[in-house]
Amino acid sequence: MRAEQQLRPLNLGEILDVGIKIYMRNALTLFKIVAVVVVPVQFLSVIITLSALPDFFNSAFSGTPPDPAQTEAFAEDPSQLWTFFAGIGVVLLLSFLSSTLATGASFKAVGTAYLGGVPEWRSSLSFVAQRLHSVLWVSFLSTLFMLLGLVACIVPGVWLYASYAVVLPALLTEDARGMEALRRSFQLVKGRWWPTFGLMVLSVIMAGIVGQIIGLIATGLTFTPVGDSIVATLVLNALASTVAAVLTTPFVAAIVSVLYFDLRVRKEGFDLQLLAQRIGATATGPSLAPAGPVWGPPAPPGAAWEGHAELPPENQPPYWPPPPGWKPPPLPGDYQPPR
User: Fold this and answer.
1) Domain range summary for the chain, segments of one domain joined by +
2) Which tens digit of pLDDT belongs to each residue from 168-187?
3) Cβ-Cβ contacts under 8 Å for 68 (sequence gap 6 or more)
4) CA atoms of 41 and 327, how far apart (whole Å)
5) What does the alpha-carbon distance between residue 58 and residue 80 come to, in Å, rounded to a whole number?
6) Angle, nearest 10°, between helix axes 27-52 and 79-114?
7) Dist. CA 31–CA 67, nearest whole Å
């Protein structure tokens, strides 16, 4: 019996450990989710940026003296500058949309894996795409309130950062929308603010280190002949951003998802079987099957099921922290363990 199956809430180290294990075991699926969304957007962003750049930027970027005619034309026609800012605005909007979709789909895939299902990149993206308007609205509201808190006195913004940590899992798992999702996250984090804040900061730092390493490699390449071309530089930066997003987005989602389930276990002792059915997890064994007996979480190592032998491991999800004091239900008399 693995340690992550024990009948108790997880401490911070265990949450991090389980999150990393889910991330590693489902890495290919998680990478596909992010790449399918981010790669086309990055490619389109490069095209938009190049189209919006004023003509004299190409000369200035390459280090050659700018063409006086181009400079004069830019001074006489400031609309080129507005075109540039409009292009940057479109790029930022596309980045926000793609990041939100990729993050939400990563949460969905991790939640499915945590509950013992087999995550699929297509179904995860489809699930979130159908709720994208709600995901975008909740993301906008939480970001807005955090920014207002930072502007007001910094401390309220930091407090809301941790309080809204599990907004997206609450939306995707419980179908809480808008302000309801914000209140739901606040309710779950209440009383566990410091552990939540510490775990969030740690996961962001770890992801940030990976992103910085990739960014430094890309920056170093700009000092080579590659950096003499604005097209090559933009493509290189887009590639670095894509790799960083593919590696770090699902990692943070895995940690936050495990945190969300742990908070629910601690506060509510929720029924994981019903939860698995609600999020549409793909069953890998009888424990998540739509029909037949519903088995509870596994007993701790060395324990027995009220006089019955433990169910075989293939009938149990890989990560299942049940609520404190949980007792397994009596097994049906006609139950025959699979041979």
Assistant:
1) 3-278
2) 999 998 888 889 999 999 99
3) none
4) 49
5) 14
6) 170
7) 44
DSSP 287: G
Q: Do 213 and 203 form a contact (C-beta atoms < 8 A)? A: no
Read off the pLDDT of residues 26-69 as tens digits, 9 standing for 90 and up: 999 999 999 999 999 999 999 998 888 776 565 555 555 555 66
DSSP track, 115-169: TT----HHHHHHHHHTTHHHHHHHHHHHHHHHHHHHHHHSHHHHHHHHHTTTHHH
Residue 248 has which token pair?
């770090």
Do the Cβ atoms of 12 and 198 come closer than 8 Å? Answer: yes
**Tokens at 333, concatenated:** 């008399």
Burial of 195 (0-12, 13-18, 19+ CB in 10 A): middle
State pTM to two decimals.
0.73
Residue bearing tokens 């609520």: 323
Instruction: Tell me how far apart the alpha carbons of residues 193 and 190 are, in angstroms, rounded to a whole number.
Output: 6
